[in-house]
Amino acid sequence: MTQADRPSIRPGIRLQWEAVQNAYVLLYPEGMVKLNTSAAEILRRCDGMRSVDEIVADLESTFNRNGLQGEIEHFLQLARAQGWLSAAES
Amino acid sequence: MNAAVTTSPVVGPPLWLLLELTYRCPLQCVFCYNPIDFAKVEDELTTEEWIRVLREARALGSVQLGLSGGEPLMRDDVEAIADEAHRLGYYTNLITSGVGLTRERLSELKRVGLDHIQLSFQDSTREMNDFLSHTRTFELKKRCAEWIKEHGYPMVVNCVIHRLNIDHLDTIIDMAVRMGADYLELANTQYYSWAHLNREHLLPSREQLQKAEQTMQTWRERMKGKMKIFFVVPDYYEQRPKKCVNGWGTTLATIAPDGTAMPCHTARMLPGLSFPNVRARSMKEIWFDSDAFNRFRGQGWMKEPCASCEEREKDFGGCRCQAYLLAHDAAAADPVCSKSPHHRVVVSAVERAQETRVPEAPLVFRRPENSRSYS
Lengths: 90, 375
Prior knowledge:
The complex is a heterodimer of chains A (90) and B (375).
Chain A: E1 6-9, E2 14-18, E3 23-28, E4 31-34, H1 37-44, H2 52-62, H3 69-81, E5 85-88
Antiparallel strand pairs in A: 1-5, 2-3, 3-4
Chain B: E1 16-20, H1 47-60, E2 64-68, H2 78-88, E3 91-96, H3 103-112, E4 116-121, H4 126-133, H5 138-150, E5 156-161, H6 169-178, E6 183-188, H7 193-197, H8 199-202, H9 206-222, E7 228-232, E8 252-255, E9 261-262, H10 283-289, H11 291-294, H12 312-315, H13 320-327, H14 343-353, H15 368-374
Parallel strand pairs in B: 1-2, 1-8, 2-3, 3-4, 4-5, 5-6, 6-7
Antiparallel strand pairs in B: 8-9
Helix pairs in contact in B: 1-2, 2-3
């Protein structure tokens, strides 16, 4: 995945807020992962419209922190390896 | 003297809800996990009753939904149930043999928001598939696979593996590849219900298993990144039991066709437990307060060797149904465990599986006549 890629959640996988678990979860065939806050905030922005660079900028401004790029890119690679994300090239 | 302290475990939500919509099934698979006496169950829940269950369970936090059976498509309201499930926010999995599926029904299921379909096969050739299910369904299943792909679903194929088909693993995997499967589940038979009755015919030999694992490894490497292959070995060959249903009453609630609520789909066989029915009680009462769901929660029920075992939190003593089937005590350690005083039962079944003779008892197909005569 490059900084210009626009990642999106793969078809058949759903990101959803679960009030009872007080967390976002990813749902996929016969399985579920409960996401921690940072994972959820990143995945919520993977809408196929925003590039990796834009996601980083958005998160840095929302949480008023700099230097998140490495951490976010690392998570996106991981999420892609898990089969949660596909990335359209821009 | 120490006061008896009962620490009740924190009960989480029933994240997984499995609805066995019907025990009716056109297939007659010899390894079916439905109860032997399934033919007694005739009074199926109505659409409205299933929908009430969906609402009540969703409010408790259920989110993964399995629509299973029998063959769920024997009912004509799967679409209505899937529709309501989607509106409530469930991730809905249809677990089907494909019998009863048409292009029209599939389009409707897609439209109402069904998330995923798991299609089962019995073997890779028409002859063996149709023999093992005792029906002519192989060609139909292949058509279903094409439709499922056509509708943009991930292709999830399941084939139950046992002594009679394990030597065909290579062609089974090849078939799944040619069908464009994204996931292939090759789960060895678990020995409950009909599979327990037919165990002498179904338990593979060690040599068969080793060959199968090699075949599976070769395909896993070849298909890396394209198809995921899951392979589950029969627990009789393990030294430690499985963490059955992730622990009794922790994650799964199964509702049988007549509304009987159980912590797992085979629990009905356990004596001395009275399972609540969704017709008489709410899902909330059933999950939190019923004796049946509380009976094997936590560790208070454990006997030795489980009670003092350092691995007790890892597997919760294994499966209660297997303990009952093999040790005649639902609170005993699962005899799969080498620490179980009944482990010998498993060892001797495995020893018999190394012999080449054909069992004397006939293979019993899952059909209503047999259900009545064997129960």
